[in-house]
Sequence to fold (368 residues):
Amino acid sequence: MSDAHAARRTRLRERCQASGNATALVTRPANVRYLTGAAPRGAALLLGATEDVLLCGAPPRGDSLEGRPDDAVRVQLLPKPGGDPAVTAADLVTAAGAESLAVEEHHLTVARHRALRSVAPRLRLTDLGGAVEQLRVVKDEEEISCLRIGAEIADQALGELLESILVGRTERHLALELERRLVDHGADGPAFATSVATGPNSGRRGHLPTDRRVEEGDFLSVCLGAVYRGYRCEIGRTFVIGTSPADWQIELYDLVFAAQRAGRESLVPGAAYRAVDRAARHVLDSAGHGADLPALMGHGVGLEIDEDPQLAPAAMGKLDACVPVTVEPGVHLPGRGGVRIDDTLVVRPEADGGPELLTITTKELLAL
Fold:
C-alpha cells in the first residue's frame, strides 16, 4: 500500500499548505499508521514540504501489529533512549528554517506542548485539528478488504463457540476462549475487550465479563471484534441458552431486530448521520424504551474501533460511499437481561447492491 500511503500524505500536505503550513507533526498512533503504514510505539510523523520522516525510539519491527513503514518515508531513530519524537521533530523543523508547525492539539498533552515551546520558542504552533481523521472516514478497497477479513475471523470464532457446551461456563471463560479463537484464525488480536453477558447482565453495552455462570433459559449476549492488519471490526449477537425462549424474550428480541434492520436499511450515500440513528432509535422509543437507550446507534470503524462518523441524535454530516460503520441498537431490562444486535457494514450505493454486510453470523434467535 506504499502508493496509497504516499497519496494520503500528499492530500494532507495540500491541506496544510492551503492553511499556510509547510510542515505538520502527526502523533496520534492511528493517524501515523494511516499515513505511513506503521505505528511503532511512541512514533511520530513529521510531514515536510519535500520529505516525510518517521521518528521512532527503536527500529520498526514490521510485524502485523505494528505495521511496516512504506519505502518513501525516512525512518529516523531518536538520538537518546527515552526521548520524545515530537521534541526531535521540533528541532528538525527549526534547523530547516521553518516558521510554523501544525500539530494535533487534540492529542498533545499540556506537558508535551510546553516541551515543544521550550526547544523551539520562535516556532509558531498551529492546530492541525482532525484533518487526518477526516481523511480516514472514507476507506479504499484495500482497507475494506482488511475489514472484511477481520469480520470473517470474528464470525468464525463466534460460530465455533456456539457449537460448544455453554451451560455452567463463566462469562470470563467464554470471553477468553473467543479471544483465543480470534488469534487462532489469523487475527492480530481482539479489536476491543470481548464482552460476554449472561442472564441479568445480557444486553448491557460494554459489559465486562464476570464469574457468573451460564444458566438454562438465560439470554447470552456477545460482542467481539478482530484486528486484521490494524483494521478493526465489530459483531454483537444475542442467543437463548438451552431451551425455547420465553414470550418476553421473543418480544424483546424481535423489537431490537426491527430497530437494527431499520438502521441498516437507512445506510445510503447522502443519508444524514442523525437520520440513521433516528431510524433505529424510533423503533425502540415507540415501544417505550427511549429513556434507556445508548447515546448512539452506531459509529465508524477502521484503524480504531470507534471513529468517525458517529451515528448519534446530534451528529452533523452525511454518509459517503465506502464508509464502514456499525449499527448496534440494544435494550437492557434491569434485573432481567436484554438484547444487543451489532453488525459492521460498508455504505454502498443502491446500484452496487446497497450496504455491504461484513458480519454474517445469523441474527435468528437461536436456542443453544
Notes: The chain has a mean pLDDT of 94. The chain is about 35% helix and 20% strand. Residues 33 and 145 are 17 Å apart (CA to CA). The first helix runs from residue 2 to 18.
